[in-house]
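Letters spell out the chain; backbone shape is given numerically. Take this protein:
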Amino acid sequence: MQGTPIWQTSRFDIDLARPRIMGIVNVTPDSFSDGGLHARTDLALRHCERLLQEGADILDIGGESTRPGAIAVSESEELARVLPVVRHALTLGVPVSVDTYKPAVMQAVLDLGVDIINDVWALRWRAPGSSWSGEDVVTGHARCGVCLMHMHGDPQTMQVSPMEGDVLLPVAEFLTKRCASLVERGVQASRICIDPGIGFGKTVVQNFSLLARQATLCDGGFAVLAGWSRKSSLGAVIGAAAKDRVVASAAAALLAVHNGARIVRVHDVPATVQALQVLAAMQRAVPQG
């Protein structure tokens, strides 16, 4: 990114000179890693507060799992899950993101004051018979932030028929086009970040190839958000269940930041904080000039 990296959002201009940690709040019964742990509103509220105490900079609240094979939920069910948590999170003094692809959900949470829309469909999804998209919602908002993610296929099919060959160029081209579409409609580039979509229709080798060459995505001028936390590609390497991938997740977050990511989306905040503290100490020790 050129100049001072800032992610403009509804209430906050987030300084990305320091990498930021986005803490995951899954208000769902079926997420791949922690499904059901925070499905009750009271548990989700306490989890928000705990993530901030542990060092998270941003809260990302989701009411529908997008893990491989996940079953879609209705708009009304998603709203019933997320709205009480969003209302509380907005009182905590930090940027609040909502992980959703439904335009009506986006509009509802933005009307409450949410700062960021984090969309696995990159604002392309439309309800059957509707012409209204997430792009319409975001472009109609004065300054909300948005994260555009690359996904091959959809949650029901993406790992059944993943991408083939070298994925770097198609991922980069897709994200470039989606960013350009928003900018052409008047959305400031500083409102946009991009996510290569680790695990969303890619093989283990393809995911690690994206990590190794992530700098190419960073060269596009938009902040990169990396979501490696507890992903199955890490399990394939270390042979552990999702709940036992804490160290591997922190390592992947560290590598993502070292390779240019400015935001990491994680379940395990304390381990990530420590890993990034080590990286920062190394970077401070390098002689300047």
Notes: The beta strands are 6-8, 13-15, 20-26, 58-62, 96-99, 116-119, 145-149, 192-195, 223-226, 263-266.
